[in-house]
Amino acid sequence: MLNLFVNGHKSAPPHFITVVFLAASAAMTMNIFLPSLTAISLEFGIAYSSAQLVLSGYLGVTAVFQLLIGPLSDRYGRRPVILVSLVLFFIGSLICLVAPTFEILLFGRLVQASAITTMSLSRAIVRDLFARSKAASMIGYVTMAMAIGPMIAPMLGGYLQENYSWRARFLRLAVIAATMLVLCWFDLGETNKNKSTSLAAQFRNYGELVREKPLWLYIISATAGAGVFFTFIGGADYVGRNFLDLTPTEIGFYFVFVSVGYISGNYLAGRFTEKTGLEKMMVVGTAVTVVGVVISIFLFFIGVVEAASLFLPMLFVGIGNGMSLPSANAGAVSVRADLAGSAAGLTGSLQVGGGAALSYLAANMLGPNTGPYPMLAIMLGASIISLAASTIIFRMPQPAHAE
User: Fold this and answer.
1) Does 256 have pLDDT greater than 60?
2) CA-CA distance, 116 to 23, in Å (whole number)?
3) What pTM was estimated for this model as a whole?
């Protein structure tokens, strides 16, 4: 099936906007339904923690996808793997749109998880085109621009639910998938100029890759940092609806603070990483994330039970993640530049796999009498781990193959 998509405009590199849209489409797929978890649980008569499987299950399958797409893209190229994934993304969206039962909805979401390919391989594409430090800056700019999608998605999702149905968002995702397929067919030239000789050899290269100790520090920092955000999106709807009396539209609106913060952090990463270095940007960014979570805990502890206590500090969490994650991801795919696709897949797999676990844990720990504290405690622990890994990387000597 991969060979079906090899032909076409495969020589010219993609335009910047295409790479941005690639990354944004996967992020929107995850975020657009977040204000509707409670509505889904009510329609199908299931517990909130079960409805949350459309998020954590989605993340879990994306973890598996990314272990496969990295070697596949290193062997066959970025272009064919992305095009196939967009076809699956479209099919999964249609399944979700018409799902008569929760089980079929969940199945559609798992098929839809193929969209993560576009986010993961957008990083590999950037690394194909730029050297290490420049790649970190460019990833920062790409994610800054792509964050507009996740910023709009929860608001749009809340509006669609209140005025139409939670299913309406899956129609929109089907349109996005079809649009991206057409765009990439005409403007996604192949960027992997050093394809491996066989798929079996490519999977064997994982053995070499996982023995690179710096890789694991980058992965731990990125996974724990992303885990802060995934924990938040896994529990924010429950906290907002049950403790803060917010409507789906209001919850979607407040998610803007996270995205604005992330865009701001991405701008700082794009603007300064090439000058300051990846490692310093990671330390500063993860420290800001810790501060944001601590502020939220403090506000709730002193009795300020308001939407601002939950969402305003997430502005700092977004800034911190926006600063640190582009550098962590660029560092991971640069440890072995010849295995950039595999490194991107492995890093992305563990990021979303860890995020799925933390998201599901947060949803199951929250209850009528817990307040937001279980969610915030998990976020604090993850942010501290991310800061610790980043600090170790900062103190390490640079590898000889850094560029």
Assistant:
1) yes
2) 8
3) 0.68
